[in-house]
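Handoff note, outgoing to incoming analyst
You'll be picking up this chain. Sequence as last confirmed:
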Amino acid sequence: MPRPQRCRRVCEEPEYNSFSPDGIPNNTCITLTVDEYEVIRLVDLEQLNHAQAAEQMNISRPTATEIYNNARIKIADCIVNGKRLVVSGGNYSLCNGGICGKQCRRQHYSIVCNEKGNDIMRIAVTYENGQIFQHFGHTETFKIYDIADGKITDSQVVSTNGSGHGELAGFLSVNKVDTLICGGIGGGAQTALAQAGIKLYGGVSGDADEAVNALLNGTLGYNPDVKCSHHSHEHNESAHSCGSHGCGNHDCH
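Most recent structure output, in case you need it:
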């Protein structure tokens, strides 16, 4: 598995986690991760400099600056282009009052990083009949796995409720997913996942349970440059199958 990021220390999770412009229904959603929210809070509200914010979050100053810049771009995109902002997900742990002196709150599925590697993860797999469904933008169900100490502790199959394409990244964020395993996926969806702080393992096929166990064991074969070749071939008997949902006239965003 890739080397994990250093966990970002956060004082407390946001009390308000969704903001929408008036009069713009069904607008595009941008996800600000909780660690991005924390940098904005420390620098722009608490008036700390980047070095001070980095120290409080237990990260390097360049990392704090990078997180801050990414967060500002997202916020500007929402303000200028009328997009909905959701604060969710990310790579963080709560300080539990040890740094700020406050009584911190913990959501059930926050991503908590421990020094001894007892990582809590939430992995989603595009899912159909036990297999990894091969087109992210068309998936109707995800199987979501809760992970602790490198083992599956719980799993459930959840419906996307008609969400598709760009909305799926927001759906995963709302469900506190931090890692996705899938088959084909388009560039727009990859960008949305990256903005939501969700790690992508694309180009994977086969049994969903086996893929999750392979990821936990560090043996998962995946394609870091995965593309959706949905329209790059003829749909004949030798072409790939799109599953029971059909190919239609869509891409895999």
